[in-house]
Amino acid sequence: MIEEILIMLSNLGAVEEDRAVTKDALNQSEKLRGKSIDEDVKRLIETGYVKDHNGRLYLTKAGLFRALSRFS
Amino acid sequence: MSGDLGLSQQDGNAALARIKIKSPKKILMLSWEYPPRIIGGISRVVEGLSKALTGLGLEVHVVTNDMPGSPAEEVDEGVRIHRVRVDTPAPNFHTWVLLMNHFFAKRVGILAREVGGFDIVHVHDWLVFPCGVETRNFTGCPMVSTLHSLEYKRAGGINSPEGQMIESFEWWITYDSGIVIVCSGSMKEDVKWKFKVPDEKIWVIPVGLNKRKFLQARPDWKAVRSKYGVGDNEKLVLFVGRLTHQKGCEYLIRAFPSVVKFFNAKLVIVGDGYQRGELEYIALTTGEGWRIKFTGFLSDSDVVDLMLCSDLMVIPSVYEPFGVVALEGMAAGIPVVASNVDGLGEIIKHEYSGVLVYPRDPSSISWGISRVLGDPNLARTIVENAKREVDKKYTWEAVAQLTLKAYEQTLR
Question: Domain range holding A50?
């Protein structure tokens, strides 16, 4: 689910602090609906792909590049 | 979407009149990535080509995606870069791509009025094709496209509705463009076979290389290697690329235990991608995981330093339409061991400018690495020949001259 979270953050435009989104917004997407994403989000923050800004999430540069790696 | 271009029929007629000119003056490049947004190879290709075309006296505009921290408008070595932000959230990637094209088209419409239209719109891959078509339809300038790779090979087949959509776009590009540019002979054959495109419509124009960054760098050999856990008496084997199935890194990792039976070596894997977790697991299961270092994405200058301080670079791709990383290794003066696939097989001559191995074959990769590490004379010869090949065949100036000819052909 890690990759789905990264791609969804990119789709939502959450690529910088002022565009960060809540976990609820992520959970509303088709692929993540009804799934528990807490553990994966925690891992993504620990590994530097995602940042948490006052409970809202956004992609770091490394997260953005990883999210889009399959499309180039 | 089309109304957002904001151009009248009069604008279109004026642009149509410009088609009669023989040599283009103003080029619009459309690309979803441009430095510092570097997802894959497209970014550097568009940058190198745009700068070289500017060097030939053309006015080049690049409309591309924004990147946090980068200016919306910038002029870099004469190239006018316009970064566009996709302001609307999308439910999935493919919808996001269409939205991106919508925002690109808005910017292009304003830009076309500001600069008086374009002589050519140059589309880079399916991701920006809808905006290319709109630009052509509403400004009247002909469209040239570069196909950088093909979905059925990139994804290992067309296995989803999304894949079907991408492949349809790729066919559409070949149908609707005046000229289709590809980077290698094998890519040309793929496009001809897959989309039934006439031979004369496809131009093979290789990718160039800017050697400056390798000539200017002065890395501290010992410090760079130590930073990645490689000792003075160990061989540094390097991989640089996206961690995706296409790049074949798993076969290199599986090959590595056979290499370290005979050589005291470490493998440094630079890059990131959706396959990273799987690759880290494979590395652990080899029993030699402690010799394999994953760095994640590195800055351009860090990658250059690493290349200059490595003993060998391996490119184990299962699909590589061109393989610009091979040119970088050759320019950096390190021997390159690469899969004999597609463009790599055209860039590298076996045991002359590199060593070619079988794709998806760890034992062949292990043989290739050992062949180079075990024969310093061969390694030296390969490096010398490779540098000559890069100087002779892969300059951006030559690539720009050929591209200009393709533009002129389109304008006839």
Answer: 2-71
CB contact under 8 A, A29 and B296: no
Structure tokens at B17: 């009149």
108-127 in B: which are within 8 Å (CB) of A? 127
Share of chain B above pLDDT 70, in %: 95
ipTM of model: 0.93
Q: Residues of B numbered 276-305 whose beta carbons fall under 8 angstroms of chain A's beta carbons: which are they?
A: 276-277, 296-297
Q: Rounded to two decimals, what is the model's pTM?
A: 0.90
In DSSP terms, B293 is beta-bridged to B268
**Contact call for B68 and A61, based on CB within 8 A:** yes
Kindly state the tokens that stand for B155. 């994804």
Buried b (16+ CB within 10 A) or exposed e, A20-58: bbebebbeebeebeeeebeebbeebeebebbbeeeebbb
Among B124, B272, B322, the strongest candidate for a mutation testing the A interface, having the largest count of A CBs within 10 A, is B272
The pLDDT tens digits of the residues spanning B79-121 come to 999 999 998 999 999 999 999 999 999 999 999 999 999 999 9
CATH of the domain at A18: 1.10.10.10
| Domains contained in chain B, CATH given | 2-208+395-411 (3.40.50.2000), 212-393 (3.40.50.2000)
B195-233 per-position pLDDT tens digit: 999 999 999 999 999 899 999 999 999 999 999 999 999
Q: Is the pLDDT of residue B400 over 70?
A: yes
Using an 8 Å Cβ cutoff, are B405 and B378 in contact?
no
Which residues from B are below 8 Å from A29, CB to CB? 91-92
